[in-house]
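Structural prep section.
Before we set up the soaks we want a predicted structure of the protein with 6-chloro-9H-purine in place, mainly to decide which crystallisation condition to try first. Input record follows.
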Amino acid sequence: MTDFHAAIPKAELHLHIEGTLEPEMMVALAARNRVAIPFASVEEVRAAYRFTDLQSFLDIYYAGAEVLRTEEDFHDLAAAYFDRAAADGVVHAEIFFDPQTHTHRGIPFDTVARGLFAAVEGAQAKHGMTVEIIMSYLRHLDEDDAFATLKLAEPWLDRFVGVGLDSSEVGNPPAKFARVFAASRERGLKLCAHAGEEGPPAYIHEALDVLKVDRIDHGNRAMEDPALVARLARAAMTLTVCPLSNVALRNVDTLADHPIDRMLDAGLRATIHSDDPAYFGGYIAENFRSVAAARNLSRAQVVTLARNSFLGAFLTDATLAGHL
Ligand code: ES4
Ligand code: ZN
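Run finished without errors. Recording the tokens verbatim:
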């Protein structure tokens, strides 16, 4: 049965495609590619998904990505995600991929991009879904490495909607990537950055002031800084919040403590997304459903959250109007 939370049309704006690698596919790709993984079964993979913070997750997430080798692997991964997203009411998706996770282990940028874009064409044909791809720089690496990635992306740049910034936040502030974000903007790319997930409110200010981002990923910790909340509200800045991720990575204790409705009440343009759903226990509809139950959200609040996902998307005005 399709419930309200799955049925309501929505845009997915915060989804790492590598984070949709389900244990079943991890085990199957390990066998297909003859890659050794430190797990004997799907159950063992799942049992390893107990995180204490962002880094404890990232270590397992990068290890899992080792099974992704061929263009077909990236196609199959993304195609499986688009099928799930369509069933969850996603009509438009802007998905991240982490090129450096793959180029650093010898997988050519073009192999990854070809596989992903083949799946995008399939999703458009099969589901009528519109899809954009955002290439995300890894912030634990240096800015020169991000520049090298931008160079590798050159033949694909008119097909990417934007760039992002993810991985280990604390100790890797936005300003570390000031020049590569400026260069990305000059090439016509939209800009987003993870900020205020584990890092302090100052990192959100910096993403706005130094990187000049168009969208903030997570942003939960803005709630500690009333002046920042006022600034984000005034700018109608979209914050792509991921409730199940926040619980899995211990940024909030339980869903019952999640700030999503307090963020809306404070005037923030918050939205709900799934981050790394294969690791955090649910895709976008489950994020909506479980936080709505835990926080007793009204229908009107759920509608606002879904509507905000379109307002925050990198859509043209004409396409946006069709979704509202
Ligand atoms: C991520 Cl939850 C999260 N935070 C930062 N970087 C990431 N990459 C994939 N998931
Ligand atoms: Zn994320």
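Observations: The pocket of zinc ion (ligand 2) is lined by residues 14, 16, 166, 194, 217, 275 (CB under 6 Å).
Flagged for discussion at group meeting.
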